[in-house]
Amino acid sequence: MRVFLDQLGCRLNFSENSTLAGRLSAAGHRIVGRPEDAHVIVLNTCAVTAQAARKSRQAARHLNKRNPDARIALTGCYATLAPRESAALPGVELVADNQSKEMLHSLLEPWSAEFSDPEDLARIQPYGTPFHAASPDEDGGRTRAFVKVQDGCQNRCTFCIVTALRGDSRSRTTADVVQEVQALVRSGYREAVLTGVHLGAFGRDLSGSQQTDLKELTAAILTDTDVARLRLSSLEPWELAEGFFDLWQRWPGRLCPHLHLPLQAGTDAQLRRMARRCTVTSFRKLVADARAAIPDLIITTDVIVGFPGESEADFEESLRFVEEMRFAHAHIFPFSPRVGTAAARFDGQVPKSVKRERSQRMHQVVARTGRLERTRFIGSTRPVLWEGSGRQLTDQPDSLLWSGLTDNYLRVTAQAPSNLDLGNRITPVRLDQLHGETLYGVPQVPEPRPADI
Fold this sequence. Notes:
Helix content: 25-40%
CATH topology of the largest domain: pyruvate-formate lyase- activating enzyme
Strand order of the largest sheet: 2-1-3-4-5
Number of domains: 3
CATH class of the largest domain: Alpha Beta
Distance between the termini: 50 Å
Number of helices: 14
Strand content: 15-25%
Radius of gyration: 23 Å
């Protein structure tokens, strides 16, 4: 059976699709790169905002148009939030909510008898294939892997539907995660990104001797695996263990100096209405402590504008706080009322036109702070993990254009001779210029010598 996998939304969805790809491959099915080549299409949907839900529906319709003969299976948060609407979309023959997602490979199995290719049966992997499969990076190579270590959330933020859709926090064991990361290293991956709905809660739901936390998990991975770079995805700005930032002192070359700390609002009044478990003061201290402990740290965030009850004075205060924090980037969301959340019932709903205007102003502030954060690295040299295979330059046939990320999550582009293969390598790069949000640099690696004649 030929299967095409697609997803919207967070890195967790990306990691889950990669896990599903591994399980389907182990069962003898073939993962294809185009929906037109598939018998079955799996779409992992998102519903964090109304726009995300709309994009999920649009994506399902678009996939059906590209291959009307394929059977579509919808899973993820939109499929959980609106199962009837999901089932009514064209081509959709299976809807699996988040609680059924772990068994999706089994739910698809009855279709395999109708779509079995003889050559696929020869590809069945032996028993013992890892439960969590390697996660290919955006370019389809083996550069960066997203490792799902936890699902669900105990928090009850008033704006968030994800808690209802994902359930309570559930963690994998440390040994299981360490085993997967080392398997990724053997497969050729250079960087692992730990992901979860509430990553900072990792391990606290486990019982007995298996109970742990994110600090201990991070230390175990860096001690017991050979992964070149380990990156943490979104961390709520609370519940970090004492001495958490000391990890970067112990592994300065491998633990990436980048933190994504969702702020959501820059006033105590709005944070309380959101049921966020932090204050402006505690967030400010957390950022100051992190920057003091981690050299060259880059911090990114999430911000909601137009939350119910947000006055113009509230918004102005948030703008000032966001500017003070010097975020390099922010995901900025106009508030989207989600049925089933407390905030959808709050008084003081902000008009769409006001939310749109505030979003634009917040983007302007973050663009300014982001430029300042990137500019301070011009003239420095940083390690870059190069992605893909390099792009041929039409006007310079002897050169390739490469793209990659620094350890502190800055996008870098560099030109190199076509006989210098940077793919999936980590090399020092001198950062010379900034264009938009991309730094342009020069790889500090020796060029290959011409072959002896």
